[in-house]
Amino acid sequence: MNFSESFRTALRALAANKLRAILTMLGIVIGVGAVVALMAVGRGATAAITSQVQGIGANLISIFGGRFRQGGQPTIGVVYYQDYEALHKGLKNVAGIAPEADQNGTITYGKESLTSQVTATTPDFAKVRAYEVERGRFITEADRAHKARVVVLGAQTAKDLFGGLSPIGRTLKINGIGFEVVGLLKSKGSSGGFGNADQIIIVPLETGYAKLAGANSVRNGKLLLSSISLSAASAEVVDEVMVQAERILRRQHKLKLTDDLDFSVLSQSQFLSALSTITTTLTLFLGFIGVISLVVGGIGVMNIMLVSVTERTKEIGLRKAVGAKQRAIMLQFLIETLVLTFIGGVLGTLLGWGISQLVSLTGQLQPQVDIATIATAFTVTAVVGLLSGLYPAFRASRLRPIEALRYE
Amino acid sequence: MIEIDNITKIYKLGDTEVRALDGVSLKINKGEMVAIMGPSGSGKSTLMAILGCLDVPTSGGYRLDDEKVEGLNDNQLADIRNRKIGFVFQQFNLLARTTALDNVMLPLTYGGVRGKERRERTEEALQKVGLGDRMHHRPNELSGGQQQRVAIARALVNSPSIVLADEPTGALDSKTGAEIIGLFQQLHRDLGQTVIFVSHDPFIARHTERVIRLADGLIVGDEKIEHPIKAGTPRPSEMALAEEAHK
After folding, report:
1. Pick from A318, A323, A327: which is nearest to B82 by CB?
2. pTM over 0.80
3. Could you give the ipTM of this predicted complex?
4. Which residues of B touch A398 (CB under 8 A)?
5. B76 touches chain A (CB under 8 A)
6. Contact A381, A32 (CB under 8 A)
7. Contact B64, B84 (CB under 8 A)
8. Residue B207's domain is classified under what CATH number?
9. The domain containing residue B151 runs over which residues?
10. Integer angstrom CA distances of residue A161 from A104, A186, A199, A269, B49
């Protein structure tokens, strides 16, 4: 009895009882499918959260006036346009830097009216905050120079004001002053974090100072800013850029070494570390679910293998009676089990993939089917299937044929 | 040729020992048609299992065709069964949902016979039992008698030294049973096949040429039958059989 003969015998035995074979396989299909789908959805969720957070702006550093101190009075302070200029000139390893002067304004278009924060800033803002233009253009240096009355709208704001109409080229009013809409930003999705990133109204910095803020924008003869946003060239240099920024601002604000800072330099790093805790927890949680589904799937496979092979003790007895050696019996059941677990594993992977595709149709997240998960699910079910199939086969193959034949 | 010498078989059931065979010696020549008879519990099934190498005796010697069988390991016994013994069981023991051809082929497959030879020998065996036109039928498409014929073909396919039939008519009606016995008689007569019947039924046993009676694990009778009953003869009344048994 050589291998190819055993292979044919095993296939013949499987074909002889298709229902039993299919039911056995079903356990494996569901076990593998559940694990693959769960893990894919989990990884998709993790990726979605991470990308949304990064959508706020990569390696973002925020600088604003004042400083909170733990267990003490907050220090009051402001940042000026001159601070921005100093930083712009002095900082290295910066991908972009944008000053922001925020004002609250009443925006009207026809009968639609809303109150919102209006951000006066520079062209770098798009890069620093990771905005992309959907239609039209972003504000330009020329807009700044001409104090142009132009406005760029976030996706949500545009929808609120214009409904389905294209906003480009239309004129809306901010505090009664007409502004031409020149650009529409791409939606960032319902980004978590600080408010809705799509509810934003952007005007050129100088236009904001001249037309909207008026006298409020000047203190001690200097132009005020709400904050300065900058993005470090890479994640590795974030800390270094923060130290540089602090040094430059300390000099700008003429602070002595012993003085408390009257400004804050914050990065996303705290936020990112919190995020990584969340995603780690999520991954662990999913891994846990995966392990449980594997165990459940494995027990299913074990059950059906034990039952279906034990049920065949009589068949094993007959095969031995007509001259099958132990090795031939074991080889047959090994091949049968391998064929079942392999086909079941492939079908289970397809099932898991199919479920992932269905989930992605909801548009909420993009599940990621992962080779390592497939391999693990596959291996575990195959090993469990093999052991639980071979154990009763081994036991039966060692019985005296007469005992196996009499087995009921 | 079968020679067993002082065979014992002891089963342990909890604390009690059951002596299923208690020192049985026996010689069956090539070409004989023999019935081993006895009531249930007499040890006849145990004797059949040992003769068929399906079980090993607790003690005693066994030579099959001058080959020593006692002391062989599991795989060697499988080899002996494959080459020298054909089995026919009461419940047929065919592989379900498997064609007659594949069922009969099984011993050849395990014996390492391949390809055309295997196919030809399988078909030949099926023709011998009159199922040349049913080769591709599965057991559930065959009558009880036909299933037992498939089992007989499977027993014959390896040209064994002995065919062991354990109550081969036990699951069949009397007419079909008679046909099966007729088939055995024919195989014995035409091919000189050694056949050993195991049965509790004196009527069935009288179809053979020699009846060995067992009781309580011992041989209590060994009788030559000069005129075996021809298969198909109506069964005499139970009384007549009982009388016959006491002669």
Report:
1. A323
2. no
3. 0.92
4. 74
5. no
6. yes
7. yes
8. 3.40.50.300
9. 29-54+72-246
10. 16, 16, 11, 36, 94
